[in-house]
Specification:
10 strands; Rossmann fold; 8 helices; six-stranded mixed β-sheet; four-stranded antiparallel β-sheet; alpha/beta
Length: 230
C-alpha cells in the first residue's frame, strides 16, 4: 500500500510542444520530463516565454503535446479526443486563474455550480455548491454577484468552483496575481490548507518567489527546458 501511494499521478516523458506561426515553427517545450506524486505541492516557475504556461496547459489537458508522452493518473492523455480531454478536466482537475473567470451576471452559488452542470449532475447540485462555498468561508456571500465582492472573495469563489467536483489536482495559474498582499496571503493559506486537509495535489504556476518558497518542490523552466527541479 505504501508503494502505491508513491505512484505518480502525473508523468511527463520527453514532452515537446511546437506551434506553427505562419511559416515559422516555435518550439515552446523541448523534451521535458518529470513526475508528480499524489499530495505533492509544486510550483512551476520561469521567466516570461520560458514555456511554463504551455506546460500548464498540457498538465491541465487544455492542450496536448506535439511529441513525448503525458500520463495523468495512469492514462496517456497525449492522443485523446477533445471530448475525452474535457471529461478528464471536469473529473480530475480543478482550475484557478489569475483573473478569476467568474460569470459577472451569475451569483457566487451559480458560478460554483457550473462544473456540476457541465458534468450532467442534477441531484444535490446546489447542496454541493453550498458546501464548497462554506469550505472557503463564503457561507454568507452565496447569493452575491461578483461585482459585490472583493478580489479576494472572488478568488475564493473561483477556488470553490474548482473544488466542487472533488478533483485530485488543483492547478492554479498566478492565483494571487490580481490581489493585494493581504488577500494574496489569505488565498495561499486557503490553497495550502486544501492539501493538508484533503490531500489535494497542488500545482501553482507563478513568478512570485515568495510563493515558490512555500512549495514542497519547484520545477523551473527556461527556454522550453527544465532548468532545475528542487
Amino acid at each position: 500500500m505504501e508503494t502505491s501511494m508513491q505512484d505518480p499521478v502525473i508523468t511527463a516523458r520527453n514532452v515537446e510542444k511546437v506551434y506553427q506561426m505562419g511559416s515559422v515553427e516555435v518550439q515552446a517545450l523541448r523534451g521535458v520530463s518529470f513526475a508528480i506524486c499524489p499530495g505533492e505541492v509544486i510550483a512551476i516557475m520561469g521567466p516570461s516565454g520560458s514555456g511554463k504556461s504551455t506546460l500548464m496547459n498540457i498538465l491541465g489537458c487544455l492542450d496536448v503535446p506535439t511529441g513525448g508522452e503525458y500520463t495523468l493518473d495512469g492514462v496517456n492523455v497525449s492522443n485523446l479526443t477533445d471530448d475525452d480531454l474535457a471529461e478528464i478536466r471536469n473529473r480530475k482537475i480543478g482550475f484557478v486563474f489569475q483573473s478569476f473567470n467568474l460569470l459577472s451576471r451569475a451569483s457566487a452559488l451559480a458560478n460554483v455550480e457550473l462544473p456540476l452542470r457541465y458534468g450532467g449532475v442534477t441531484k444535490g447540485r446546489q447542496e454541493r455548491a453550498e458546501k464548497a462555498l462554506e469550505a472557503v468561508g463564503l457561507a454568507d456571500r452565496m447569493h452575491h454577484m461578483p461585482s459585490e465582492m472583493s478580489g479576494g472573495q472572488q478568488q475564493r469563489v473561483a477556488i470553490a468552483r474548482a473544488l466542487v467536483n472533488n478533483p485530485a489536482i488543483l492547478l492554479a495559474d498566478e492565483p494571487t496575481g490580481n490581489l493585494d498582499t493581504h488577500s494574496g496571503t489569505e488565498i495561499m493559506n486557503l490553497i495550502l490548507s486544501l492539501n493538508q486537509e484533503r490531500g489535494t495535489t497542488i500545482i501553482i504556476v507563478t513568478h512570485d518567489p515568495r510563493i515558490g518558497s512555500q512549495m514542497q518542490r519547484v520545477i523551473r523552466v527556461r527556454d522550453g527546458l527544465l532548468e532545475e527541479t528542487l
